[in-house]
Amino acid sequence: MENRPIKLYLLTGFLGSGKTTFLKKIMAVLADKKTGILMNEFGKISVDGILLKQNGIDIVEINNGSVFCSCLKGAFIDALIAYSELPIEYLFVEASGMADPSSIEHILHTVVGKVKGKQYDYQGAICVVDALNFLDQADVLLAIERQVAASNLIIINKVDLIEEPVLQEVEQRILTINPAAEVLKASHCEISTEFLNRKLKKTEYTSFQESCNTSANRPVAHIITADGVFDQEVFGDFLQALVPWALRIKGFFRLTDGWKQVDVVGTQIEIKPTAISRPVSELVVISAQGLPALNEIYANWDKRFTAKMSLQ
């Protein structure tokens, strides 16, 4: 067992598609295996990392950007080299939602020869697609198209939230981008995990040495922190006002009936109870609209709350 290479999977998918949900399910299946997780979050606050750690899952995090951008690529390579020294059988790399994974094979080739432990056996890329928002997102974000194009297995998630004609359109769009990939449909990322017993289907995708992720075109992750207890209805109204300005909103906020996990994807707003508590309430607002989005956050907060908040 010790001489076998580490099976490496890359997990991609746009913000809120369901990557962390999928990863939780995989970790339950591999509970008796030695498995590593390298998580890449776009914001400085690791919301998904907190959720995984709550389930007793150990992870290594690289935050505040994409590991395929030049700003973090070195840290990614260093992490892969460090993981190769550990006695693990599997390594899952969960890329940030904005990641363009085009350069993954080039990066892995860079790692070869530098590892001090076992080599990696790259199994392929798994892409989780948000069926509800995919068609709108793919029209304006190159990274989403490249995530699909670079994947070996594509999970069309949230099929329970759309009608059959829309699902057919999503599937056709995916197959136009990547006709060779294996495509599965799911709700809440419920799929068979038999793929773990085989290598993922090969595709004809031509890998690029560089991804489209650069420090110049990256969206901004605004971090809201606030102390106190907030009214849920007013807070929900605040989130609704930010929807047009945000690609994704997530975090943990203390409301009148306890701590809540906040998850906003597209126009869907979810505020649900959580056992997680933080020193202060924290919210990550990822936006590509720059200063106007920043102004909207300030204006909508001041309109509804008297408590002070800090915005990074």
UniProtKB/TrEMBL annotation:
This is GTPase, G3E family. PANTHER family: COBW DOMAIN-CONTAINING PROTEIN, COBW-RELATED. Coiled coil: none annotated. Residues 222-288 form the CobW C-terminal domain. GO terms for cellular component: cytoplasm. Residues 9-184 form the CobW/HypB/UreG nucleotide-binding domain. It comes from the Bacteria. Pfam families: cobW, CobW_C. InterPro entries: CobW-like_C, CobW/HypB/UreG_nucleotide-bd, P-loop_NTPase, Zinc-reg_GTPase_activator.
